[in-house]
Each structure stands twice: as C-alpha cells, then as structure tokens.
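Recap from last week: sequence in, structure out.
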Amino acid sequence: MIDTNLLKDNPQRVLEALQSRNYDFNVESYESLEAQRKTHQTETEDLQAKRNSLSKEYGLLKKEGKDDPALNSKIETIKTELDKCSSKLNHIQSSLKEFLLDIPNLPADSVPNGSSDENNIKIRDHGELRILNGKDHLEITSMIDTESANLLAGSRFSVLIGEIAKLQRALIAFMLDKAEEHGYTEHYLPMVANSESLTSTGQLPKFAEDLFQLTEDYYLIPTAEVPLTNLYRNQIVDMNKFPLKLSAHTSCFRSEAGSYGRDTKGLIRQHQFEKVELVQICHPDNSFEALENLTSHAESVLKDLNLPYQVVELCTGDLGFSAAKTYDLEVWIPSQETFREISSCSNCTDFQARRAKIRFKEEGASKLAHTLNGSALAAGRALIAVIENNFDQKGTIIVPEVLHEYTKFKSIKV
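Predicted structure tokens:
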C-alpha cells in the first residue's frame, strides 16, 4: 500500500507515477472518499464526546440518588445517532481501504520510463548461446511425462521420472546451499496461506483469480515470498539484525488466469512448480543496494550452472504490482531461440511492510522496513535450461559439474 500522505500532499506526483505504470488513478474518487471519511469521522468523534460527557453527568446524578429522564432520553438519542454514523464511517473506511489496496507501488526514480516490456533495458549478459535445431526438452527426454500428469490432474502439470526427477531435486538442493553461502537462513513453510498473508504481500484482493482458493480464507501459495515476508507481519524488528535474509524451497501454485494459449507445451508455464525464493527485510537506506546484492545472489546460481542468461531492468509499465524496481534474470532456452524469465528480483520498498505492519524503531520512532524478494531460481525453468543447453545431440544430457555431488551421476542417457 502506498503512503496516503503522498496522496494528500502531492496527488499530482502520485498521478504521474501511476500513469507511467499504465494505472488509471481516479483522483476525484479518492478525494471524495477521503472527504466523506473526514466528515463522518469528525461527526462520530463529536457524538462520542457528547455521549461520554452526558453519560458521566447522568452517572453522577444516579450516585446522588437522582434521576433525569430527559437527560437519559437525550443520551439514548445520541447513541442511536452514533450507531448510524459509526456504521456509515465503517462503510466509507472499507471502501477507502479497497480503493487503496488496488493501487500498485510507485516506481523508484531510477526506473526507466516505458509502457511495456519492449521498453525494458538489458543491463548485462553472460555465456555463449546455442541452438538445438528444433528439439525441446520434451523431445529430448521421455522422463518428463505430461500425458500422465494430464490424466492425474489436467493440463499444465507434469510428472518427472527417474534421473530427471533427481536432477530437479539436485537443482533445488544446490540452490538452497548457494543461498546459505550468501547468508540466507533456510525455512520450511506451509504451502497454504490465509487471506491476510496474501493481502500483506499484494496478491489479494487484486489478483484473486490468479490463486488456487481452498476455502473462504485459505489459498495455495503462489510463491514462498508470501509466507517468508509474513513471518514478520505485525512485528517490530530489531534493526541491529538487518538485513534479515530468508530462503525457502516450496511448491508454488498459480491458476495462470488469462494465459491460456501461451506456453501450453512443456514446463515453461505450469499450475504447480518448484522454486527457491530469497527474501530480505532491511533498513530503507540500504534497500537499493540490497537489491543489487540479491540479484547477484540469484545470478551466481546461473553462473555456476554455466547457463547463458541476461539481466534486464524492467520499465515502469512492466513492473509487478508490489515492486518499485525490478531486475529480471532471463535464461537462454535453445529450442525457443530466446531468453525466458527465470527470476524477478524486486525491491518493494515500504509497500508490503505498510500492509503487513513490519516496522523497526530508530531514534525512538517507529518506521517501516523495506522488503525485497527474488527467485534463485524457478527450478522447472532451470531444469529446462540445463537439459537443453547440455544436450549433446547424441542422446546424452551432460550434468553440470556443480550438481555431481547432488545427483551422484554425471550424465543422463535419453
């Protein structure tokens, strides 16, 4: 949630920032709701003060053994008016909260302006590219079984078999160990989150259709960013412990609403996929430096796997809802002859912390922390990249050397 003080003090700046994100911010609606809130809050507070004053006066009379029916009637009338006014205030506050929860984070000043991903900027690249002459990961190996997955659960699921299943497990273990090298504490987390957790990190209420809902209040997690960040919800964190660095491997579940017809073949876009997530919670003064560090931590996985990739800075119009600044890591997929996103590393500034009430104390004042997150990495896409970039065209997938201690084999015959 953005800082409402910015809306009050400089609505034009907010409007321009949100326009750069292709978000249509209705200033009139906000000002109308805020004016109604102020009016009804003032009326409510005035009625509460009158009720309290008259109730105190009536209480003193009763102590003296006296009664004043007219005064009592007046108190009851005020109580009725107060109930009505409080109800209106609650309704307006609810509408205002819903309005504010729909607004994305404001882009950082350093983010390039642009309307779509065509305006993103490549920062750097790494590795040599290769082409597979049309063969993709499904054609290379039969140990990725989408037909059985379709029988078990439907489209956009997969069954991994034998050495390919072990290869994915090795990738995950390697990623977790790399995170530990960089100072992240591993967590094992619930893969179900309540609505308050998802609201805190920005998935609800705006992106409800992208989630798998289990009950009225429970959802499958779309990313470990949700539970990791919410570990510190409603807490005042000791700033001496900054930066908090957290990691976790989880399955992630996404409905992929609106993506039908896109990447229906293979492991690129699945309803269920594995991911190792990195989260940092830090002092606001250090969050953009932390973003550079977090991005380098995710990059180190790709470098060690010897996978070609590029780093892209997202423009204002392509930022995720909660992000103020984002670097995408895109790995080379030979069969598609293109780079595909494998990680988004984002600084969410105080946007999630304001929703989740993640604070710290400095010089006696309570302040909002900054939160960051990024994948290191999406295991399914890493698996595709390893298979396709290491296929020797003669029926063998060469396993990257850094994974040998995890797989206990150096190649896979397909």
